[in-house]
Amino acid sequence: MAEKMAMAKAINESLRRALDADPKVLIMGEDVGKLGGVFRVTDGLQKDFGEDRVIDTPLAESGIVGTAIGLALRGYRPVVEIQFDGFVFPAYDQIVTQLAKMHARSLGKVKLPVVVRIPYGGGIGAVEHHSESPEALFAHVAGLKVVSPSNASDAYWMMQQAIQSDDPVIYFEPKRRYWDKAEVDPEAIPAPLHKARVVREGTDLTLAAYGPMVKLCQEVADAAAEEGKHLEVLDLRSVSPLDFDSIQTSVEKTRRLVVVHEAPVFFGSGAEIAARITERCFYHLEAPVLRVGGYHAPYPPARLEEEYLPDLDRVLDAVDRSLAY
Predict the structure, then answer these.
(1) Mean pLDDT of 133-159
(2) Exposed e or buried b for every residue in 274-291, given b needs 16+ CB within 10 A?
(3) I need a labelling partner for 256 at 20 to 30 A (CA). Which of 65, 224, 229, 307 fits?
(4) What is the pTM assigned to this prediction?
């Protein structure tokens, strides 16, 4: 039966289900065991499944991912946690030169079913290196799948699908949404992992987002509706691969597109979407594809992060500019 739960709880329940279903599933990371993770996402799992299945690791991200690669080569399905987004970079070498390339290097003989969980993004008043949005860095790397849920139900099912995937999956968890609640049905039939979803129908303009910005785009659509503007909100769910077909279908209907993400606009995932949709929908578009995101600057101290992060007014401004063409 469906149950309303927070995103953090949904991920916990999904990990619990995977651990129970397959003895080859392991969880590894800093403080994931006894503490249950800094956000308590893995709370109670070590107690119920033991220290051999839910493993507290040293503070060594490269070692965590490197060990997971070795375990995957021996038939395990490791789920590793990078405690915060900005801590992933010591492991970047392992991820892009080993995890992403082993399948191609072995001509398809070797599979690496590793999930790398990364709490990411801002909005929680954290210190330096705790609010990054590095998804474009991983989406650029062939061999990696990159996904980000926006709600508890997707968080539950996308984790199940990521663990079952024979390819490595970078699973970005929007930490500012950990406490947002939604209905989760463990018996539902989930959408394909890399399929975008229309969360609000509209006719005047498409807002495309993923992870933490989907909720903001829904709030923007509510505000625009008060002025008689009907915006469609598309939850991309996956950054690599991107579901360009669903974006194209929406844009052919609305004829306008604004892409929203927390990460910097410069060389961000929105740039790839804008370029591809311009190619695909050139004769349908009535305005250029616009992007709203972070600035090309280091993430600021917590007292300034609300100036950095996209908000209702910045997205509405882009909507107005698009509709003005």
Answers:
(1) 98
(2) beebeebbeeebeeebbb
(3) 307
(4) 0.97
Burial of 232 (0-12, 13-18, 19+ CB in 10 A): buried
Whether the pLDDT of residue 1 is over 90: the answer is: no
DSSP string, 157-200: HHHHHHHH-SS-EEEEEEGGGTT-EEEE-TTS-PPPTT--EEEE
pLDDT score of 248 more than 90: yes
Give ∠ CA 18-210-129 in degrees, rounded to 5.
80
Alpha-carbon distance values, 154 to 18, 162, 307 (Å): 15, 11, 29
pLDDT tens for 228-245 read 999 999 999 999 999 999
Across 25-45, average pLDDT: 98
Phi, psi of 157 (to 5 degrees): -75, -35
- Candidates 270, 181, 271, 196; CA nearest to 233 is 196
- Work out the angle between the directed axes of helices 213-225 and 312-323 (0-180°, nearest 10): 60
Torsion 215-298-317-203 (CA) sign:
negative
Give the distance between the most distant pair of CA atoms in the chain.
60
* Residues annotated as catalytic (active site), given as ranges: 130
The 10 Å Cβ neighbour count of residue 272 is 18
- Structure tokens given for 177: 């949404």
Residue type, 232: E
Would you tell me how many other CB atoms lie within 10 Å of the CB of residue 243?
18
Q: How far apart are CA 168 and CA 146, in angstroms?
A: 9
pLDDT at 28 over 90: yes
Q: What is the pLDDT of residue 232?
A: 98
The tens digit of pLDDT for each residue in 68-77 reads: 999 999 999 9
Please give the full DSSP string across 52-71, using - where no structure is assigned: TTEEE--S-HHHHHHHHHHH
